[in-house]
Specification:
The chain is mainly alpha-helical. It is 83% helix and 0% strand. Helix 4 packs antiparallel against helix 6 and helix 6 packs antiparallel against helix 7.
Length: 156
């Protein structure tokens, strides 16, 4: 449903791999931390809220830093990709990418914390199943967030 809307802004499409990969890396980072804690016996299912709260705080810091650095990089380096002389439109477009980055990393890190604990709860090996599920879920969510933010901010 977003395909026709985004064809008018092909520059936004170029950032999809960066958004999906950054979110996937964030989710994987959280899952590795949780899987290690599970394997060492440092956390159990009853600790899920404590784990999610901790990962959410880390995710907020990571999301803010990554979004700000990305925004600055786009302002300083990526202006040629957008091929526009309308500063307001350019700022809106790079804001879409940076805001999406914030939310996708935040959500990915929380999902990365929850999935291994769910796997352990259902007697599955978190180390084996967490990564493929995190990647698939985060990729889909990243695209939905990106397209919805683009429609919302850019009025597509």
């Amino acid at each position: 449903s977003f395909e026709t809307k985004l064809t008018v802004l092909p520059a936004l499409i170029t950032f999809i791999p960066m958004l999906m990969n950054t979110a996937g890396n964030g989710g994987s980072q959280s899952s590795v931390t949780v899987i290690r804690a599970l394997s060492l016996g440092d956390v159990e299912w009853r600790d899920i809220f404590k784990v999610v709260w901790k990962e959410t705080r880390v995710a907020i810091v990571c999301s803010i830093v990554l979004s700000l650095v990305n925004f600055l990089k786009m302002v300083l380096v990526d202006h040629l990709i957008f091929n526009t002389f309308d500063t307001g439109k350019y700022i809106a477009e790079i804001s879409v990418v940076s805001i999406t980055l914030f939310f996708t990393v935040l959500i990915a890190k929380v999902i990365g914390a929850i999935l291994p604990m769910l796997a352990k709860k259902f007697n599955l090996d978190p180390a084996v199943m967490a990564s493929p599920f995190i990647t698939t879920i985060v990729d889909a969510i990243s695209l939905l967030i990106y397209f919805n933010i683009a429609v919302l901010i850019l009025g597509l």
